[in-house]
Amino acid sequence: MNHQEQIEAAKQYTVAKLGKDKTGHGMDHINRVVRMARRLSAGEQVDPFLPVVAAYLHDTIDEKLVTNISAAKQELHDYLLNNGFSAEDVATIMDVIANISFAHTLDQGEIHLSLVGKIVRDADWLDAIGALGITRAIYYGGAHHEKIYDPQIKPRHNMSRAEYRNLDDETIINHFDEKLLGLKDKLFTPTAKAIATHRQQVMLNFLDEFHKEWNAEA
Ligand code: ADP
Ligand code: NI
């Protein structure tokens, strides 16, 4: 199999697993992350092959989407070997997708990622900020019956993974303070950091306008 066919195989695996997802991790998110992984690879002068494959596969073993994570890992591992990926490439891909999620950063100390991992994590996290980040937060918050905003409820900080997933007192606006505004400074690659500068300003402008309108000041 050539690289193009292997990329196609990775895509088809994800379509089979996430094609019907309604949690905000559907193929639209995946396709954006793939496009961004290509852009970041070009900016960082890295061969896009593994970043693109890992970007396609990055949510297929996510704790929110699969019940048995080790079975999901094994299935993907076998699929890649059966589709002509070398053992070394399989190890790189599995390492990336096991270690890039935001939730993972809450219960782990320092995370060591390969350059491929850094590109895919940056691409995934860029999809959580800017206009897309605003849209996804509202979409997720609505799906989980979060309040839009409540000035009495203060943003939470230094959350554990369990606290992050506990939405009892969560509001959509607090999610910006709790997570989204901090992502920019945790990006790895210079190419992603440059893209994040603009997206950060889009979120700050949105929040400023939101609070003004909330207080009948705009
Ligand atoms: P990851 O898969 O990297 O761990 P999440 O599953 O936590 O990321 O988030 C998926 C999307 O849903 C992101 O855009 C994120 O900002 C948004 N999201 C996660 N938690 C909340 C929340 N409590 N309120 C609103 N949006 C959220
Ligand atoms: Ni993702």
Could you please describe the fold and organization of this structure?
By secondary structure, the chain is mainly alpha-helical. It has one domain (3-214): Hypothetical protein af1432 (Orthogonal Bundle), CATH 1.10.3210.50. It has helices at residues 3-18, 27-44, 49-57, 69-82, 87-99, 102-107, 115-126, 130-143, 161-165, 172-183, 190-214. The longest helix has 25 residues, at 190-214. The chain starts with a helix and ends with a helix. The mean pLDDT is 93. Adenosine-5'-diphosphate (ADP) binds next to α6, α8 and α10.
How much is the average pLDDT? 93
Q: What small molecules are bound in this structure?
A: adenosine-5'-diphosphate, nickel (II) ion
Task: Output the structural class.
Answer: mainly alpha
- How many discrete structural domains? 1
Poorly predicted ranges: none
Number of strands: 0
Q: Shape from CA axes?
A: globular
CATH topology: Hypothetical protein af1432
Look at the structure and give the CATH class: Mainly Alpha
Helix fraction bin: 55-70%
Rg, rounded, reads 18 Å
Number of helices: 11
Helix-strand topology string: HHHHHHHHHHH
Q: What CATH architecture do you see?
A: Orthogonal Bundle
Give the terminus-to-terminus CA distance.
58 Å
Percentage of residues in DSSP E strands:
under 5%
Largest sheet: none
